[in-house]
């Protein structure tokens, strides 16, 4: 429960909390009014953990206060640092919403990509300045990035815990700190804030700040942007991308690649809206290919009707066979587990067979590198009720640890058998 109360004055202090922005294990951030009726932000370190973070961050907060007033418009100015029994900061109010509030407003349409990139570039300015003056990592979360209503398109950073290692766990429950920051000899030099910003941006694209993080390439629906952010989300030698380099890459993407990414995303959404069978039809090139596929469909329907008639006739003889989607999925993963991809010809399209072989090759490579002991089993489920359905399987090795995710597209043919038409393998363990 928050220590401050909306509308209630704090004895001995000249502000009245108005609206709670976020409450976490370290403390609270409030929109408030000062003694003259002006709007401010209050960052209160209201718990024992918060008090320790404040003490650790105090030199960096003083440096932030000194620099933000004159050098970095992306860093919100600290108006007062109060070292009372319950320490707090008085921070200027840009009179906008936080990144989380902006993204999660149900009445708002999805934020244009160019505006998202503007946010990232503005916060990268703050990160660059923070690293330059030695107060990194700044500790960025979706609740410390705030839009400025005074300057359209401007985003600014609320100070909370610069250069504090004690903030790794309580600040947003540690969600936005890379693991490397806790063991780095010089945490301020591994660009941890770039990692945090990239994930916060990805969550904004997905409009979901609570889900388990997927692989970056799966989470980012824009191919060229995915390449830029993926290198930041997968630190090399414990270090993420340099903020100046990342800012340049984003600017280049906006000027030359954003349009093509939007077209690629639109195409992907269109393909997803089609049935798996329709996608299979579209992959057949040329008039003759479509003609023969159509001929195959008509023939299959005829055979399917005959099969139904035979099945009904066979009921009296106790010879009915029930074919269900889950059996097809189980057969697929069973064949993959024993390396018997040759068995998949009966239940997979040609393209899916090749995709399955590629997946098997990746599993073999993971085993050769010692990442897994060997593929043991998959937990799978089927989603959907129509003739076209999706299935997702989590792959486990012989020690019971998950190492990959496989998504299948299946459809029911006219003869009522199920067929796998698309296989998408995602490695989830790398060491």
Layout of strands and helices, then pairs:
Blueprint: E1 15-23, E2 28-34, E3 39-44, H1 48-68, E4 78-82, E5 88-92, H2 99-104, H3 113-132, E6 145-148, E7 154-157, H4 192-206, H5 216-219, H6 223-233, H7 243-256, H8 258-273, H9 276-283, H10 286-314, H11 325-337, H12 350-368, E8 375-383, E9 388-397, E10 402-412, E11 418-427
Helix pairs in contact: 3-4, 3-7, 6-7
Describe the fold and architecture.
The two termini are 40 Å apart. Residues 290-323 have low confidence and may be disordered. By secondary structure, this protein is an alpha+beta fold. 41% of the residues lie in helices and 19% in strands. The radius of gyration is 28 Å and the shape is elongated. The strands form three sheets. It has a five-stranded antiparallel β-sheet with strand order 1-2-3-5-4, with helices on one face. A four-stranded antiparallel β-sheet has the order 8-9-10-11, with helices on both faces. A two-stranded antiparallel sheet has the order 6-7.
